[in-house]
């Protein structure tokens, strides 16, 4: 009977050992993860925003991604607007329409690129407002490109300028929010 009792004790010890091994393995996985997340948070990182393979996203990283899209888009838009101004002054309706189509395309490309960035909620709301303002400008520019006379085309200039001012207001706001670590990360 003592052999039976001893064998049963060994089975319980084996099951207990298994539980200890599993608990130890879980602790080994979970504790470093908690420490790692705390270290990322202390560094201003937002792990939930990070693309696969990247450990953290900081406000600085988001700003860099935004500027990498905005700067070339602004340069292209400025070139498109300068081209429009030049051909409009020469009274060339077809060329003006063509430059306006290019301008609307530049605006939409910016929107598409900006929409691909994953922002934290406070910044995402501002980014969406920027996209909406820019989409409105792109629609107005595209409508302007459909003008059938130079007079009709020029009648849009003020409205497009106001739409551009609304976009610039949103650009300033997103840059301000991205500069605020509490909001951006």
Outline the structure in words:
It is a single chain. The chain is built from 7 helices and no strands. By secondary structure, it is mainly α. It folds into 2 domains: about 1-40; about 60-185. Helix 2 (about 60-90) packs antiparallel against helix 3, helix 3 (about 95-115) packs antiparallel against helix 4 and helix 4 (about 120-145) runs antiparallel to helix 6. The longest helix is centred in the N-terminal third of the chain and has 41 residues, at about 1-40. It is elongated and about 90 Å long. The chain starts with a helix and ends with a helix.
Domain tally: 2
Helix/strand-derived class? mainly alpha
Low-pLDDT runs of 5+ residues are: 48-54
Provide a count of the helices: 7
Strand residue percentage = under 5%
Distance between the termini: 67 Å
As a percent range, the share of helical residues equals over 70%
Care to count the β-strands? 0
Shape: elongated
Radius of gyration equals 29 Å
H and E string = HHHHHHH
- Could you report the average pLDDT, rounded to the nearest whole number? 77
> Main β-sheet, in a few words?
none
